[in-house]
């Protein structure tokens, strides 16, 4: 089903040497993707208002003094964008070096590929570089918070808070270098307002938030996405009819996600749809 949208005027934008046509209101990132350009993103979420936290998506806009974050800057008619200029590539390289030196990016999709592509050397700050290393928080049977992998993109906070769930179980604690994602008073999730919808897990770009099943299987070395199949079906618990994507390995459901392009749920689920698959 394709939901009807109000008609939008189309504008022409020049991406590198190619002119693409995108609807008014589209971002530079949308235009780059329409032109087939692979601009890296980390904090951008396709179901969330851009936060501009990571700046790995920067591009050069002709006439602009500073580099523009492609994920949030709106495309304008006649805009000329350079996606791979020396300055943009250097900026992305430094972002990847800073993140790579302080955060465990081992489960961030494509991080290793981008690190190689941009020639980033996270080790160049030396062995004493500050890191966010800490033990993973395993305090419930459904999902794990491993903040050694957290890039402070705030997606989980937005998903849990005013953008989707309105539960406000997790937020930012501390300021500046001491900023972390936390529950109130750093309590275990079981003592927090969390309702275990897992919508934070759905949007986390690094694997800092993960299903307990995935966390355990990674620890024992059995997690293997190449052996997993994905089947999208309809949740059987209530009449809303949310879409569930079941990730199955060795004939067992290992995690549940939800399609972001669903016009009703936009990737969000409740605890039953997300974690209540034991009966299957
Ligand atoms: S599972 Fe839901 S309620 Fe709990 S922290 Fe995540 S988004 Fe918030
Ligand atoms: S836990 Fe994940 S979603 Fe939340 S701020 Fe950290 S990296 Fe972003
Ligand atoms: S992806 Fe654009 S600022 Fe993070």
TrEMBL record:
User: What is the name listed in the Swiss-Prot or TrEMBL entry for this protein?
Assistant: NADP-reducing hydrogenase subunit HndC
The question of whether 4Fe-4S is a record keyword is answered with yes
- Show where the 2Fe-2S ferredoxin-type domain sits: 9-87
Q: Does the keyword Iron-sulfur apply?
A: yes
Question: What SUPFAM superfamilies does this protein map onto?
Answer: 2Fe-2S ferredoxin-like, 4Fe-4S ferredoxins, Formate dehydrogenase/DMSO reductase, domains 1-3
Which molecular function GO terms apply here? hydrogen dehydrogenase (NADP+) activity
InterPro entries this protein is in? Answer: 2Fe-2S_ferredoxin-like_sf, 2Fe-2S_ferredoxin-type, 4Fe4S_Fe-S-bd, 4Fe4S_Fe_S_CS, Mopterin_OxRdtase_4Fe-4S_dom, MopterinOxRdtase_cofactor_BS, PSI_iron-sulfur_center
Q: What class of enzyme is it?
A: oxidoreductase
UniProt gene name: hndD
EC number in record = 1.12.1.3
Provide the 4Fe-4S Mo/W bis-MGD-type domain boundaries: 228-280
Q: Which UniProt keywords apply?
A: 4Fe-4S, Iron, Iron-sulfur, Metal-binding, Oxidoreductase
